[in-house]
């Protein structure tokens, strides 16, 4: 029933899997468009979780969890030095742990 | 709960950031500056979240296929996967995160409702103040309407005022007319009195003159002959009277 509408105007959840690529191509990637999408997302999150009479902790907690996850992803390269084992082999410790075990 | 404080203080920081909460909210509620539609009320409760960090929509999404425990099993499987593949690396910070998480969860569980009630009270006070201002404005405006109606009723009474003034003017005119009538009467009476006095004077003068003239003529017409005879008559009369008197006295 949504086939009559042009592709660029459909929402993400209404787009079929096969036409996802062409839908992505039709999206507005101009700076104004990017800003508009950021603002739209902010509005949706804000009006759903924060701009209410009796908000819960979820509104802020989800933002904090997202911040933690994002910062973990950015630090992953640095943190990968502290791995406990190499690849899938649990018997081979990493360089960092070899050094510390040798020090012991 | 924390979002309540965010909202309460959102107005304070509205102007401090370009994407500040209040500005965005205001810029999207009314698209034109002249729209008169009432601002829609805020929703009572926010989007539901399970355990504070997972939106309820995930659970609703998976319920038809996996039932109630589906998302929890998904969570456990994901956790195992990221731990075993060392996508999440257990290091010294994991312990710190666990301690902080425990403290945070304990704090939220214990003090959550109190902070929520406090923020609600702040909001209540704000709303009440605005409501008071609105009520005051309403009562004062209603009073102004009543006063205006009263002034209109008073203005209708102007007719009576004009009638009274007309009566006053008529009375003044009447008084003036009567004064003048009196004056006229007096003046006419004075003139007529003068004429009467003049006539009486004429008559008196004529009378006196006539009397004087008659007296003078009579006096001059008494000849010495008549005078003598009259004196003799008088003497004889006196004598007779004396005799009568003597007779009366001795009798």
TrEMBL record, chain A:
Keywords, sorted A to Z: ATP synthesis, CF(0), Hydrogen ion transport, Ion transport, Membrane, Mitochondrion, Transmembrane, Transmembrane helix, Transport
One Pfam family it belongs to: WRW
Source species, domain of life: Eukaryota
Transmembrane regions: 55-74
Primary site of residence: mitochondrion
BP GO terms, sorted: proton motive force-driven mitochondrial ATP synthesis
GO terms of molecular function: proton-transporting ATP synthase activity, rotational mechanism
Annotated localization: Mitochondrion membrane
One Gene Ontology term, aspect cellular component: mitochondrial membrane
UniProt similarity note: Belongs to the ATPase F chain family.
Protein name: ATP synthase membrane subunit f
Organism: Oncorhynchus kisutch
Lineage: Eukaryota, Metazoa, Chordata, Craniata, Vertebrata
UniProtKB/TrEMBL annotation, chain B:
Localization per record: Mitochondrion; Mitochondrion inner membrane
Domain of life: Eukaryota
A Pfam family hit: Mt_ATP-synt_B
SUPFAM superfamilies per the UniProt record, alphabetical: ATP synthase B chain-like
GO molecular function, one term: proton-transporting ATP synthase activity, rotational mechanism
A GO CC term attached to the entry: proton-transporting ATP synthase complex
UniProt keyword annotations, A-Z: Acetylation, CF(0), Hydrogen ion transport, Ion transport, Membrane, Mitochondrion, Mitochondrion inner membrane, Transit peptide, Transport
Gene3D superfamilies, per the entry: 1.20.5.2210
Listed PANTHER family: ATP SYNTHASE F(0) COMPLEX SUBUNIT B1, MITOCHONDRIAL (PTHR12733:SF3), MITOCHONDRIAL ATP SYNTHASE B CHAIN (PTHR12733)
Quaternary state and interactors: F-type ATPases have 2 components, CF(1) - the catalytic core - and CF(0) - the membrane proton channel. CF(1) and CF(0) have multiple subunits. Component of the ATP synthase complex composed at least of ATP5F1A/subunit alpha, ATP5F1B/subunit beta, ATP5MC1/subunit c (homooctomer), MT-ATP6/subunit a, MT-ATP8/subunit 8, ATP5ME/subunit e, ATP5MF/subunit f, ATP5MG/subunit g, ATP5MK/subunit k, ATP5MJ/subunit j, ATP5F1C/subunit gamma, ATP5F1D/subunit delta, ATP5F1E/subunit epsilon, ATP5PF/subunit F6, ATP5PB/subunit b, ATP5PD/subunit d, ATP5PO/subunit OSCP.
Protein name as catalogued: ATP synthase subunit b
Organism: Oncorhynchus kisutch (Coho salmon)
């Amino acid at each position: 029933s949504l086939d009559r509408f042009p592709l660029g105007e459909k929402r993400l959840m209404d787009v079929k899997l096969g036409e996802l690529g062409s839908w992505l191509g039709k999206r507005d990637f101009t700076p104004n468009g990017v800003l508009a999408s950021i603002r739209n997302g902010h509005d949706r999150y804000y009006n759903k979780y924060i701009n209410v009479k009796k908000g819960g902790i979820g509104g802020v907690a989800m933002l904090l969890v997202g911040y933690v996850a994002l910062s973990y992803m950015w630090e992953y390269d640095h943190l990968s030095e502290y791995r406990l084992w190499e690849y899938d082999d649990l018997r081979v410790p990493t360089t960092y742990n070899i050094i510390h075990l040798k020090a012991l | 709960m924390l979002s309540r404080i965010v909202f309460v203080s959102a107005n304070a920081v509205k102007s401090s950031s370009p994407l500040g909460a209040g500005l965005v909210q205001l810029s999207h509620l009314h698209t034109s500056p002249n729209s008169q539609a009432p601002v829609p009320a805020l929703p009572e409760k926010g989007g539901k979240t399970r355990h504070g960090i997972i939106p309820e929509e995930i659970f609703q999404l998976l319920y038809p296929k996996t039932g109630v425990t589906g998302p929890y099993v998904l969570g456990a499987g994901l956790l195992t996967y990221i731990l075993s593949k060392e996508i999440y690396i257990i290091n010294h910070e994991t312990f710190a995160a666990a301690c902080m998480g425990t403290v945070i969860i304990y704090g939220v569980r214990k003090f959550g409702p109190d902070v929520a009630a406090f923020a609600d009270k702040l909001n209540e006070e704000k709303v009440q103040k605005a409501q008071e201002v609105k009520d005051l404005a309403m009562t004062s405006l209603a009073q102004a309407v009543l006063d205006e109606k009263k002034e209109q009723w008073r203005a209708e009474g102007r007719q009576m005022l004009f009638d009274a003034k007309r009566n006053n003017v008529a009375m003044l005119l009447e008084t003036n007319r009567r004064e003048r009538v009196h004056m006229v009467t007096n003046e006419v009476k004075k003139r007529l009195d003068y004429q009467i006095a003049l006539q009486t004077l004429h008559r008196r003068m004529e009378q006196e003159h006539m009397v004087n003239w008659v007296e003078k003529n009579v006096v001059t017409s008494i000849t010495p002959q008549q005078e003598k005879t009259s004196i003799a008559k008088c003497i004889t009369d006196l004598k007779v009277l004396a005799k009568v008197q003597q007779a009366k006295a001795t009798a």
